[in-house]
């Protein structure tokens, strides 16, 4: 941390830092990008205010940090398939990201970083909350850690993107986010319950209520009880930080070590965000 050239201010005890004095649309040299990357990995999520990003600039910046993904279900923008426009029109009741999750844990190689830019935000409300899964892991008892370490969990998009309750059904036909449905929605992948970060080497709990279906090898009632305990533990306030968006705010988080939750408390106001996710790696113990 000592030789860092960027200025960081922690926003909570567990995770999260605001970065000041960096214009991500400007010329960032390789050392600045390296520092930024280390800040994201170390703090789980970083936030920057007063950024001026159009879609091309957001993608250009994203490519400095990794390879943008095209989401297989939630449709990207026509001109920029790697960008999902997370739009909630005023008066719309549907939501996106409004429960605890890590982005795309149902991929065989789940998303590493998410880069979310706020263009139109409500005057109050619409915050995003993140929780540190490193802290969640570290605060479990040693016997529980020993029990969890060899376990795997099954992830899928089946409930989060169920065509009967999402897409046109969810958005009453107004469909600010459109979905492409295919049999891939029912695919299942298996990841370790506890993963080791490929850059920091630190361990994190890697289950989330949106995409984790069950713990492999356990009876259904055992899996349900264990997941309920882990989800409640992961959601402890002590592991969280919260960000109040302004137009021009940017947040970048590391899905390999945090979960997040978009708070849906701004009925009557519009919220327009642009989301880029970056390809990740195969989770390992
Ligand atoms: C997401 O879950 O990726 C969106 C988060 C947000 O809109 O705050």
Structural notes for this entry:
The protein is an alpha+beta fold and 285 residues long. It has a single domain (7-277), classed as Clavaminate synthase-like (Double-stranded beta-helix, 4-Layer Sandwich), CATH 3.60.130. The chain has 5 helices and 15 strands. The protein has helices at residues 30-43, 55-65, 133-138, 142-148, 220-234, and strands at residues 7-10, 17-20, 45-48, 83-88, 113-120, 128-132, 152-155, 189-192, 194-196, 203-205, 212-215, 240-243, 250-254, 258-262, 271-277. The strands form 4 sheets. A 7-stranded mixed beta sheet has the order 1-2-3-13-5-15-4, covered by helices on one side. The chain has a 3-stranded antiparallel beta sheet with strand order 12-6-14. Strands 8-7-11 form a 3-stranded antiparallel beta sheet. A hairpin with a 6-residue loop joins strand 1 and strand 2 (17-20). The longest helix has 15 residues, at 220-234. It is globular and about 50 Å long. The mean pLDDT is 93. The structure holds succinic acid. Succinic acid (SIN) binds at residues 86, 96-97, 103, 114, 116, 128, 260, 262, 273, 275.
């Amino acid at each position: 941390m000592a030789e860092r050239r960027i200025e960081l201010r922690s926003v909570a005890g567990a995770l999260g830092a605001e970065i000041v004095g960096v214009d991500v649309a400007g010329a960032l040299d390789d050392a600045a990008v390296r520092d930024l990357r280390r800040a994201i990995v170390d703090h789980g999520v970083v936030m920057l205010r007063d950024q001026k990003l159009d879609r091309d600039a957001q993608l250009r910046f994203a490519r400095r940090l990794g390879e943008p993904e095209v989401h297989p279900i939630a449709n990207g923008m026509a001109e920029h398939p790697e960008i999902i426009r997370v739009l909630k029109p005023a008066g719309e009741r549907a939501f996106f990201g409004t429960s605890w999750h890590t982005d795309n844990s149902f991929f065989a190689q789940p998303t590493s970083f998410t880069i979310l830019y706020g263009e139109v935000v409500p005057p109050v409300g619409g915050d995003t909350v993140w929780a540190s899964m490193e802290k969640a892991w570290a605060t479990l008892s040693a016997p529980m850690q020993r029990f969890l370490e060899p376990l795997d969990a099954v992830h899928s998009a089946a409930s989060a993107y169920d065509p009967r309750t999402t897409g046109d059904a969810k958005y009453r036909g107004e469909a600010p986010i459109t979905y492409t449905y295919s049999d891939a929605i029912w695919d299942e992948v298996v990841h370790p319950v506890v993963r080791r970060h490929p850059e920091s080497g630190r361990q994190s709990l890697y289950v989330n209520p949106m995409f984790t279906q069950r713990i492999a090898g356990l009876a259904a009632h055992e899996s349900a009880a264990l997941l309920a305990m882990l989800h409640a533990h992961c959601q402890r306030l002590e592991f969280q930080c919260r960000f109040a968006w302004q137009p021009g705010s940017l947040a970048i988080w590391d899905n390999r070590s945090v979960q997040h939750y978009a708070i849906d408390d701004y009925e009557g106001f519009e919220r327009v965000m642009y989301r880029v996710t970056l390809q990740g790696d195969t989770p390992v113990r």
